[in-house]
Amino acid sequence: MINSKIESLQLLRFIAAMLIVSVHLNFEFGHIGVDIFFVLSGFIIAYVTDKKTQSFFINRLIRIIPFYWLITFLFIATLLIFPDLFDLSKFNLIYLIKSLFFIPFNNIETGHYPLVIYGWTLNYEIFFYLIFSLSILINKKNLIQTFLIIFFLIYFLNLYLDNFISNVYSNPIVFEFVFGVITFIFFKNTNQLNVFSFRQILISIFLLISVIYLCLEFNKFRLLYSGIPSVIILLIFLFLNKFNFPKIFVLLGDSSYCLYLLHPYIFQFSKKILSIFDLSSAILNIFILFNVILCIIISIYLHKYFELPAQKFLKRYFK
Length: 319
Description:
This protein has 319 residues and is mostly helical. It has one domain (7-318). It has 13 helices and no strands. The protein has helices spanning 7-23, 32-49, 56-81, 93-100, 119-138, 143-160, 164-169, 175-189, 198-218, 222-240, 247-254, 256-274, 281-318.
């Protein structure tokens, strides 16, 4: 039986969220944070359901919906009160319903973007959860094998269909969830990676750097230049679980979901305010650092005083 909690992955969640935050600071490489989240999600779901499959889908919805819906309704309220605050958004009831229920749509002809900007990744998460839930219903005993069969059948069906939703779910990025599931199989069958030596970790880091360089230099296929490195990063952090981590990293990892969804709006609001003043680059850099710290503090507060209580209430209710 493997350990019930992998604390090093909490640290990885926080790092992935901070990578995405860095995109708003003009660090383009930060986009790999999304790929790390997808690979990590595939691993975690396989890890969790290896022990318990009861109420799987309900539990995942309880984890995702409360804060996502809160941010969505706050965004809509702000959009109605200050319609010029957001450059590429407008109120639309159909958009709102589809956003709330994780249905992909083409937002003002700009692409797959729900009203909350990073909600597009949650659409993929829910898609993945649905396939896993279906696999549990069909064959719980051989869950991983069943999942892989259903996943590939649905993927190729989406390739055949020609509509916006099928185009979204035939995006190769969905294979990053499969990468995570396969990583779990490797993890489980090697007894928590205790077979890994320090030399093998160094080799993994070298391979990570090599793959990133080669793919950025010669290939623009995201599954290769972000998906494969994300798997290697996940393997490295699984190895690091042998070490003890300060509890603050667990808290930062737990609050990373709030940070992930919240940070674009804090940055955008600050940008609107700062544009009024003629500030030097040094002062702007100080405000950027302040924004990052503010995002982290607010995310921790929301996690402790909204997200956790909401989840506990819903779990009691559905129980």
